[in-house]
Write a structure and sequence with these properties.
The protein is an alpha+beta fold. It has one domain. The protein has helices at residues 6-10, 26-35, 55-63, 70-79, 118-124, 139-145, 162-180, 189-206, 270-283; strands at residues 2-5, 19-24, 37-42, 90-93, 96-99, 104-112, 133-138, 151-157, 220-228, 236-241, 244-252, 259-264, 292-295. It has a 7-stranded mixed β-sheet. It has a 4-stranded mixed β-sheet with strand order 2-7-12-13, with helices on both faces. A hairpin with a 2-residue loop joins strand 4 (90-93) and strand 5. Helix 3 packs antiparallel against helix 4 and helix 7 (162-180) runs antiparallel to helix 8. Residues 89-101 have low confidence and may be disordered.
Length: 302
């Protein structure tokens, strides 16, 4: 599996964030351990229905700068060619670009860089019983455990600031200009095709990590898997959320899921909470001796 860190690959940071926290109900936590799998949702069916195509707002913001140069002209021309469907990008066909939806689809696991967050506890324990778990994981260790999957894993922190989103796109276009020496006489049709391939690949990745600033309180961290649709090892399934039939995949692990710590909501009985966690994990061959368990410091408002 190809591993791509958003911060390292597209933002020039030497070391991107790996640690994140996945909030879940007690039932989801038990299900995760017993099935030894993580649940990834089709990126077109996330809580924010406009999220996948939010990037078109960023394109428009760049275009509205009204700067007449090569970069802005390129973004403007490419805006009309970026697919709005959930697909592995596009395939070259006699110099033209076409969407090939049969290739692959993106599936997403959402977490946060904040392991004890008031907004997230309030969201994930809203079932009337006020119970929940925040499970600490490491993206790189997850990738190492999924090395046999035929696809890509893209991970990193969500970018909420519009100016930063614009700059990420501008910087990458300038990077491509230098990479392919687009202003030289050697920039031929082959180079132009490779240039566009890299650009579209970048857009299909980065769009999954741009969100409106109204969601910044989530401090979201995300893992996106590009799953080949013909991969027989992975079976697409469906569940109903708010009446919508939603596609997802359960990604199974050969070894245990790389859990590094668990925080449980304050509403759970502290005296026996950790006893139950340790008992369940031990029964599934987890090493619980060095596992970081703690009660949340956040008092959720019921």
């Amino acid at each position: 599996m190809e591993l791509i860190s958003i911060e390292k690959e597209y933002m020039g940071k030497g070391k991107g964030a790996n640690t994140f926290y996945h909030y879940m109900s007690p039932e989801s936590f038990i299900n995760m351990i017993e099935k030894n799998s993580l649940h990834f949702t089709n990126c077109m069916f996330l809580n924010d229905e406009e999220e996948y195509n939010y990037i078109f707002n960023v394109f428009e913001a760049i275009i509205q700068e009204n700067v007449e140069d090569k970069l802005h002209s390129f973004v403007k021309s490419m805006k009309e060619r970026v697919p709005k469907e959930n697909t592995d990008l596009v395939s070259p066909n006699r110099g033209l670009w076409r969407i090939d939806e049969a290739l692959a689809s993106y599936y997403v696991l959402c977490g946060s860089t904040d392991g004890d967050s008031i907004p997230l506890w309030n969201y994930y324990v809203k079932d009337g019983r006020h119970y929940g778990y925040s499970v600490q994981m490491d993206a790189k260790r997850i990738s190492d455990s999924l090395s046999t999957i035929n696809g890509k894993m893209i991970f990193g922190k969500i970018i909420y600031d519009l100016e930063q989103q614009k700059q990420v796109i501008k910087d990458y276009v300038m990077h491509l200009d230098k990479k392919y020496n687009s202003n030289s006489e050697d920039f031929d049709d082959y180079s132009a095709e490779a240039y566009q391939t890299d650009y579209f690949d970048f857009i299909q990745h980065i769009r999954l990590f741009f969100k409106s600033i109204t969601f910044r309180h989530e401090n979201e961290f995300r893992i996106a898997l590009l799953i080949r649709n013909k991969d027989k090892k992975i079976q697409k399934k469906y569940f109903a959320r708010n009446g919508v039939i939603t596609p997802y995949v359960d990604i199974s692990f050969d070894n245990n899921i790389p859990i590094e710590g668990i925080t449980y909501s304050r509403s759970i009985d502290e005296k026996i909470a950790e006893l139950g966690i340790r008992d369940m994990l031990s029964s599934h061959s987890y090493d619980v001796k060095n596992l970081n368990l703690k009660r949340s410091d956040v008092k959720v408002r019921f």
